[in-house]
Amino acid sequence: MKNTASKAIFTLLCCLPMNFILAQTEAGNTGSSYFTYTLIALAVIIFLFIVIQVADNLISIEARQLGVAGGNSFSLFPKWSEIFSSRKPAYLNGEKVTVLKQGHDILLEGGAEKHIKGIAQVATFAIQPANFIGVSPIPKLEVEVGQEVKAGDILYADKKRPYLKWAAPVSGEIVAINRGEKRAIAEIVIMADKTIQYRQFPRFALETADRAELVAYLMDAGIWPLIRQRPFHLIPDEDTIPRDIFISTFDTAPLAPDLNLVVDGQEVAFQKGLDVLAKLTSGQVHLGLDASSENAPHAAFTQARGVAKHWFSGKHPAGNVGIQIHHIRPIGGADDVVWTVGVQEVITIGKLFTEQKYDASRVVVLSGAELEQPQYVQTWQGANLGDLVKGNLKTEKVRIISGDVLSGVKKDTSSFLNFFDDQVSVILEGDYFALFGWLLPTLNVPSVSPTFPSALLKDTTFRADTNTHGEKRAFVVTGNYEEVLPMDIYPQMLFKSILTGDFERMEGLGIYELAEEDVALCEFVCVSKQPIQEILRKGLETMRAQA
Prior knowledge:
Elements: H1 4-26, H2 32-65, H3 80-83, E1 97-100, E2 116-119, E3 124-127, E4 140-141, E5 148-149, E6 154-157, E7 165-167, E8 172-179, E9 185-192, H4 211-220, E10 228-230, E11 245-248, H5 259-263, H6 267-278, E12 285-290, H7 299-302, E13 308-314, H8 321-328, E14 338-340, H9 343-354, E15 361-367, E16 375-380, H10 385-388, E17 398-402, E18 409-411, E19 423-428, H11 480-484, H12 491-500, H13 503-508, H14 520-525, H15 532-546
Parallel strand pairs: 1-13, 2-16, 11-12, 11-14, 12-13, 15-19
Antiparallel strand pairs: 3-9, 4-6, 5-8, 6-7, 8-9, 10-14, 15-16, 17-18, 17-19
Helix pairs in contact: 1-2, 6-9
């Protein structure tokens, strides 16, 4: 009985007959008929309540199966949060808001001021095949060292799916093709020109062309790898038609970039990108909008045309597109395919049609307390991380992360920004042992556990490091995962079913709805120090092999 209103009604109905019995007893009435009638009335009331509760649950289930937006919220009874909800911001104009109670915001020092400083001075850029799930580690190369390329020229194609092509993010000279284990291609490195030269594409008649022509045009331009498919979080096949396409217009991860700043000045390209995506799905394009802020989201989001808009309020991971999919129209199985696209990827798609070029420029936030000056900069996909943070580090004893601190990847100054990332996080390297561990009343440990006093200081920011404050231990049931994952699944049971290789339980417990970023907070709060994201990827690959 998840609905609080129905619980209250049930309690009230049960109390009324008992009060009646007590009243009759106090009055000295010893007749057994009153007691019999009371029991019958109580049985009828309980029966009716059960019928109503079952009907309520069936309505919610049917709404989800029919794909009704917000199907999880369908109910015969209002929730207490709906009756006694706090006042909504004026810009919502009465719009329905999905309020997520589970989650946790990690407040870190080192946030950047919300203005773009300028173009970062970066010399080299790279495309890294390992950034893409389900792609051959040794692709078919279309370039060689010493060759000059323009932005948009094809660098390589997938051997298994040769129609999948990757384009150069910048113009310049191919200076290295680095290899990793088993001769896999690790990086294709380009020394960038001072002025980017673009491959020009022919104009495309979006209004009159059919879907097959549009797909071929996007493939030829190297745009297709910008799109990711769920389940499994990989690049979709060319003949896949998604049920829906989802875009989150805000990011709630620690020190994440403000996408309102990113889209400013790119309104035309963003809208054109939405128009393109609308022609690729048999369903709708869904935008997830932020209802937590005092200020309205950017007009490019709130006034977007041809899309369904959904408002969300809550702590991280409310901004994750996977969480939003779950509350808008959940994924029902391995064959229930949806696509996800980031805001900056939508802009890149749009510019192919408005400017006839592959524009891989990105606004990237350099964040973290170990930077002299956290800032937003303009650069391109795959920028060299050493160049991005050059002269901006307070100390050398730091960890550079491509992405956020929860789901990002450890890098060094010779590495490159991952393909989908628009954030670089720099934090202290936690290569030390804390005397007495959690017994010390430290205030600089971000945690949800009340064993740390810092957990009670809700608005405190922390200077984070990489110390895990404990070692890997028995995988115990604590309920912490459920407190930070706002989805109607049982994550602890799911992860254990992955470890035991139980295919049916994995599928039944909702593995198809998840990607690593969705469970990153579960890994953060895990008292067993389990590699939750790694476990989930193992399960997804297992299920993909069975599909």
